[in-house]
Amino acid sequence: MAGTTRPSEAAAASDAPAPAAARGGAIASLVRFDRGERVLHWANAAWFAVLLATALCLYVPAVSEVVARRALIKTVHVYAGLTLALPLLATALAGRWGAGFRADVRRLNRWSADDRRWLRTRGRDRTARLGKFNPGQKLNAAFTAGAILVMLGTGSIMRWPEWWPLSWRTGATFVHDWTFIALVVAITGHVVLALSDRDALSSMRRGRISGAWARRHAPRWYEEETGAPAATDRR
Q1: Range of the domain at 166
Q2: Is residue 93 in a domain?
Q3: Residue 9 CB: number of other CB atoms within 10 A?
Q4: What is the CATH number of the domain that holds 36?
Q5: Which one in 49, 75, 107, 210 has a CA-CA gap of 20 to 30 Å to 83?
Q6: Model confidence pLDDT, tens digit, residues 99-123
């Protein structure tokens, strides 16, 4: 299947051995995120943390009064925003280091009938056989990517207002502020869900996920990676 990563490719990208199924044994764990994806994830998290913290200092009067150094905070906020997309671009263009990321971008952009059924039932349809990412994660990724572009565009207008007419500046400020609020909601939800699934959270720190988790939550991906049927492999 186009856009998927074979067991041997995933193992090569993460310097980890191939899944046990590829060697004819039981499947204890699989590589979920390679090193490049994990570094990218935590770099993005750090960038967003800086942006959220500086935005609070700029827009919440009580916080602004405590911090006081508004000019410095504004400079940090602006340049953190202007460089937010750099880790994504660097990883996407990084050859073997970005192989896992590019494969997952393709996965995130593909929707199956099971994905649509899962979304219509809000995850209650337990017969939907999902891939590596569930539809909620796919929507979140699409929203985040779009929000980065919107924030970059509106932030640039706000940073260099002399280049733009008044109506553009006013609209950019409105859109920038509301996109920021939507991002706070999305990031908060992302963190809450991550903390509720310790196996998934651990996979973003260590790279690997248990075979049992993959069979339960991502049976299509499990079968792509191992060649073993998710419904019958109970070990």
Answers
A1: 27-226
A2: yes
A3: 18
A4: 1.20.950.20
A5: 107
A6: 999 999 999 999 999 999 998 888 7
